[in-house]
């Protein structure tokens, strides 16, 4: 131990400090995953039974345009806890199929009603997918991006992706093709909040769509 200290730490203090910092980050990141496994799963859930998405309608499994089993979000939602991760951006991906029985509604919202962080959301109507960033304190962070809806979106599943990187870059993609990219004047880190699929944060405004796959990941 003395030899390590004298030959490495004393001789190269800056490298030693950076290496120690990197090791600490790896240990913290690894422990966080272990803690979450023992502290409870992060599966989506609906606290109110009547607000759970449907998998059966009229005695039949609900299926999408590819004849795969899926979930119908109609006056229903799932909420997924999102844990803080400093110095990481967030990517939200969903596989959807639009329904034509509602004029306007929410597909997802990521936020925390008790904090003033930036919110990410996607709404829909019969003409557009409407992606938004919103911050009540800083109007300069507010963005609204409209992506036109086409008839294929009502017939077959498609993927949407909304990502906000730690350096403030916002990107939106459909079926893995980039639709929009711009720099928002802020640095971002994942904060403690919820991803609500199918409703707004208050659980009062709903969307209407099929969704079989969702993914949230740090970037």
Morphology call: elongated
Which band does the percent of strand residues land in?
A: 35-45%
CATH architecture of the largest domain: Sandwich
Q: How many helices?
A: 3
Q: Widest sheet: strand order?
A: 3-14-5-10-11-12
Low-pLDDT residue spans? 34-42
The portion of residues assigned to helices is 10-25%
Number of domains as seen in the coordinates: 2
Instruction: Summarize model confidence as the mean pLDDT.
Output: 82
Query: Which CATH C-level class of the largest domain is it?
Result: Mainly Beta
State the end-to-end CA separation.
37 Å
Element-by-element helix/strand order: HHEEEEEEEEEHEEEEE
What is the gyration radius calculated from CA atoms?
Answer: 21 Å
Largest sheet: 6 strands, antiparallel
Predict the CATH topology of the largest domain. Answer: Jelly Rolls
DSSP E strands, number: 14
Report the structural category: alpha+beta
Word description of this protein:
By secondary structure, the protein is an alpha+beta fold. The chain folds into two domains: 2-39; 49-218, Jelly Rolls (Sandwich). It contains three helices and 14 strands. The strands form three sheets. The chain has a six-stranded antiparallel beta sheet with strand order 3-14-5-10-11-12. It has a six-stranded antiparallel beta sheet with strand order 4-13-6-7-8-9, with no helix packed on it.
